[in-house]
Write a structure and sequence with these properties.
The protein is of the alpha/beta class and 317 residues long. It has nine helices and 17 strands. Strands 10-11-12-13-14-15-16-17 form an eight-stranded parallel barrel. Strands 4-1-7-6 form a four-stranded mixed beta sheet, with helices on both faces. Helix 3 packs parallel to helix 4. The longest helix is centred in the middle third of the chain and has 16 residues. It is elongated, with a radius of gyration of 21 Å. It starts with 6 loop residues before the first strand and ends in a 7-residue tail after the last strand.
Amino acid sequence: MSPPRPVEVVAAAITDARGRVLLARRTVGRDLAGLWEFPGGKIEAGETAEAALVRELREELGIQVQPGSHIITVPQAYPAKRLRLDVRRVSAWKGVPKGHEGQALAWVPPHKLADYAMPPADVPVVAALTRPDRYLVTPAPEDSDEGRAAWLSAIRRALQAGIQRLHLRLPPACDRREAMLREGVALAHAAGAQAFIGGDIDLARALGAGVHLRARQLAGLRERPLPPALPVAASCHDEAELGYAQRLGCDFAVLGPVQRTPTHPEAVGLGWSRFAAMRETVSLPIYAIGGLAPADIPVARRHGAQGIAAIRALWPA
């Protein structure tokens, strides 16, 4: 039996002049009562997402809006239904937002959105609003002093170009590995970026960095390997690994390959439909990886991705 068709829902990230985002609390008697969400509702038959958003915000909040740009579309499976949440920006409206259906409202600074308990489909929306849409994975440097210097120089240029998350991936046999990782972490932190050490939990803790867990590590861990102040990411290839990553409390996952890549031409890509089907099994923010470039970010967002992770497409020439 084929799975039921998802319920199509549209919501708004409404921001005021101070940059705060409006959340509404689900009322008693509804599914997931008490949780906070982005205002919106179901798209009725024959409606466009934009028309549905205008209608829902008029009915729920008493405001007249002009929907803005697309942020993310999140496919999400719940125990009794499937959902596709289409989220749009709204920065201007007429009227004063009020909870016309008895719902509480809160204007929340972006950096505090993650403090509010939300339904699973809304969690990736917070990440899409507040976290980077690209995640640089570093290539291995050439095994020479010049190669190592070039690797660090490229990291500097990537950070100057705006990269805010990077996976410092060096093979265990790399000469001066720990010293290079230490310098890479220092460069990232000086630029206000997050650095993740590939696989080495103890070294990540010692350097005050995040850790990027390999897929084969996930099943063997029973709890989050680092304290909340240090971020944790994970590489995943299927639903089981995504489930492990969520149970461990990872901050995000990287899922793929979506397409064939030059480094792994033998690996058949998931494709976007399969990516979205896996995406709906967890509420984690997820980067898509495999043959992708910044130009693919809009299609990635349409399938529930935070953005893209890449080596070649993000590494400075």
